Amino acid sequence: MSTAKTARAVGDTAMPDGFSFAVEAVDGRARAGQLLTPHGEVETPCFMPVGTKATVKALAPRLLEELGARILLANAYHLFFRPGTEIVAAHGGLHRFMGWPGPILTDSGGFQVFSLGDTRVLRDDGVEFASVYDGSRHVFTPQRAMAIQQDLGADIVMCFDECAPGTLTRECIAAAVERTTRWAAACKEAHGRRDQLLVGIVQGGVDEELRRRSAAELLDIGFAAYAIGGLSVGERGEEMLATVALLDELLPAGKLRYFMGIGDPLGIVDVVGRGVDVFDCVLPTRLARTGTAFTADGRLNLRNAAFAADMRPLDSECDCYCCRHFTRAYLRHLVNQKEMLAAELLSLHNLRVLVRLAGAARASIKAGRFDAFAEDIHVRFAAGGQ
Amino acid sequence: MSTAKTARAVGDTAMPDGFSFAVEAVDGRARAGQLLTPHGEVETPCFMPVGTKATVKALAPRLLEELGARILLANAYHLFFRPGTEIVAAHGGLHRFMGWPGPILTDSGGFQVFSLGDTRVLRDDGVEFASVYDGSRHVFTPQRAMAIQQDLGADIVMCFDECAPGTLTRECIAAAVERTTRWAAACKEAHGRRDQLLVGIVQGGVDEELRRRSAAELLDIGFAAYAIGGLSVGERGEEMLATVALLDELLPAGKLRYFMGIGDPLGIVDVVGRGVDVFDCVLPTRLARTGTAFTADGRLNLRNAAFAADMRPLDSECDCYCCRHFTRAYLRHLVNQKEMLAAELLSLHNLRVLVRLAGAARASIKAGRFDAFAEDIHVRFAAGGQ
Predict the structure, then answer these.
(1) Quick one: B182 exposed, middle or buried, by C-beta within 10 A (0-12, 13-18, 19+)?
(2) Is A131 in the B-facing interface, judged by CB distances under 8 Å?
(3) B292 within 8 A of B301, measured Cβ to Cβ
(4) Which residues of A touch B133 (CB under 8 A)?
(5) Angle, helix A340-366 to helix A370-384, in steps of 10 degrees
(6) Helix, strand, or coil here: A244?
(7) What span, in angstroms and rounded, lies between the C-alpha atoms of B48 and B69?
């Protein structure tokens, strides 16, 4: 599938055709906004479920629609190898391949190239690495990452970056910032689909100077939206939040901000309170597959014998299909018997909890009572023991 | 949970309260009927999906409703051990435990006692065996099997029997017939719930004299419905069909007939053509979990590389959610990546195929053209190579 090459100029930060983003309300640092894409509207703050291999594990698209998901993620690295970009492109792109009519975001594969396998070789123009599927060797460059994502056809695509955790040495993180900037410029140069929003990713670990440098360099190149990468990967919580707060000051107020990889309710509330609009994580669906459920008061591990004869729903405040029809005792039975229905029902529930949480955060921001909302969530989770 | 003991007299074959069965049309030996239960109506011929552990694997009850399932199976042996009969009874029975509002049938556990584990000891009053879950030793008797099934609370319950495949020696099968008769009398004596239909099970392998003996003895005891057990367990197809045809002559024309364990489209058409009303099997959902789909023209194994870029639905004649939204290429991707959504979508599709098949058989019987219908199914499957 060939795609038109009409690269945008350095410094151009206009939204592409069919996109817009507007901040509708601000409360402290928290923002309520609206993102328009060619495949529909997303009200922010918004949690984005992760469908790495073009499926949110265990959940059919219609269930995702039902639980209120508005935008999904998929992953360029995995789809490049399986089923192969050309198979997705032959369907006309990811929307039709995975049967999801709403907006989709693809991650570039940068994170996977660096985190999967241990045989990568850094090159000036990109990274050589071994496929996690069959060990075959490949090179991803910014140009390659853009071509793959253009063929996959998501609404929102990510720059090819190097995710450097704050736990690395400052030299390593600085080098990752340098590469990320260079590659971001190359991605912008290479990206040509006018119906895709290309997002720049700020790196720099939890080092204030490196974060300032990374943000400034990306702002110089100019993107229509910015992501915060390299957090929630092992650093201390207070360092993470200080870094998000710093970026709230550095990133343009009118542009969409995406925190890459946060999915626990407390963390979501904390980053929304520091100016983040959209966020994603595998946590809710991964926890579901181990028998753990989010509730209004913390997490429940259904393997616990205490639930063997518990006739209550998972969460009496939840309106999801799982909570309206099944008891904790039944769900525990499914989990213990390794029945697939357990993963389906708990995934649906956990995602619904995060969708409702984001919706409640939005309502509180618009009502000017976000601080009270965030405090309430913290108190509940402290009482529930997390 | 205590249940009233109002055992019925030998020879009484009346339907219990809230039940009725009527044959509405006959075409050759094939029958179209209507079964009423306290939890709803079942039009026959009818395929009953199997939910051994109180869940049809991978499918939430609402999806089963949507695909047209009208009655589900569950298994007394498995539920006795996990989660334990008392947990199900505390929910008020299986319907509320598993969130299925329609009719439910429980198998007695006889088949499992004989087929799982190899440490069983036959006793006059029942079978001593080791639990497949933890090796603990237990005794199932007709009385115990009735008590468990009464507490589980299905609409239709099965006598505790010994399933003797036609591949055993005649002596073994004859002994199993003797025990099955004795236990059937004990089950009828012990069963007291007037809101449950107790079904007698005919055994006898593929031996005409033993089948006649078993049928005659069960008819003497008297049941309101009869099952054909001990077939589809290794005997030759023509022997199986001859045995079903024999039982069509022996069993009362006005009573429901249940063939235990048949789920391939050809086999279903063949037994319906010999007077069977309802039937069950794990095959459609088990095949789904290995990536195999029923279609109008035979089976497809989606692991086959031929489907890698196949943009067609599984079955262009199918109206299920899977066929309306996804390509074979996408389904193959899900199967190869071991994504749970593959099992969900293929289970839904395979069950929908059997539900539609049974519905088409019913329509053809009512229209007096069952033979042409059965011939068409045979020709299609022969062409499809399965």
Answers:
(1) middle
(2) no
(3) yes
(4) none
(5) 150
(6) helix
(7) 7
On the question of a cis peptide bond just before residue A45, with omega within 30 degrees of 0, the verdict is yes
Scan residues 146-205 of A and list those with Cβ closer than 8 Å to B: none
Provide the shortest C-alpha distance from residue A305 to chain B (in Å): 11
Please state, as a whole number, how many other Cβ atoms lie within 10 Å of the Cβ of residue A346.
28
Shortest CA distance to B363 belongs to which of B7, B12, B24?
A: B24
CA distance A215 to chain B (A): 37
Q: What is the pLDDT along chain A (386 residues), one digit of tens a residue?
A: 444 445 567 788 999 999 999 999 999 999 999 999 999 999 999 999 999 999 999 999 999 999 999 999 999 999 999 999 999 999 999 999 999 999 999 999 989 998 876 788 988 899 999 999 999 999 999 999 999 999 999 999 999 999 999 999 999 999 999 999 999 999 999 999 999 999 999 999 999 999 999 999 999 999 999 999 999 999 999 999 999 999 999 999 999 999 999 999 999 999 999 999 999 999 999 999 999 999 987 899 999 999 999 999 999 999 999 999 999 999 999 999 999 999 999 999 999 999 999 999 999 999 999 999 999 999 988 776 44
Question: Catalytic residue at A107?
Answer: yes
A91 contacts chain B (CB < 8 A): yes
Q: What's the Rg (C-alpha) of chain A?
A: 20
Write the residue in A54, A60, A309 that is nearest to B345 by C-beta: A60
Contacts of A325 in chain B (CB under 8 A): 61, 99
Establish whether B27 is a catalytic residue.
no
Does the structure's ipTM exceed the value 0.85?
Answer: yes
Contact A313, A324 (CB under 8 A): yes
If 0-12 CB within 10 Å is exposed, 13-18 middle and 19+ buried, where does residue B189 land? middle
Residues of B whose CB is below 8 A from A290 = none
- CATH numbers and ranges of domains, chain B: 20-281 (3.20.20.105), 282-386 (no CATH)
Predicted model pTM:
0.96
How crowded is the C-beta side of A80, counted as CA atoms within 13 Å? Answer: 24
CA distance B206 to B208: 6
Number of A/B CB contacts below 8 angstroms equals 100
Residues with Cβ within 8 Å of B61's Cβ and at least 6 positions away in sequence, in order, are A325, B98, B99, B100, B101
* Window A:265-284, CB contacts with B under 8 Å: none
B56 to chain A: closest CA residue = A341
Amino acid letter for position A245: A
3-state secondary structure A309-320: CCCCCCCCCCCC
The pair of three-digit structure tokens given for residue B11, joined into one six-digit string:
């020879």
- Pick the catalytic residue: B207, B264, B280, B315? B280
Asked if the C-beta of A52 comes within 8 angstroms of chain B's C-beta atoms, the answer is no
Query: Would you call A53 and B333 a contact, using CB atoms and an 8 Å cutoff?
Result: yes
Q: Pairing state of beta strands B197-202 and B46-49? A: unpaired
Q: Which sign does the torsion angle of CA B29, B30, B32, B37 carry?
A: positive
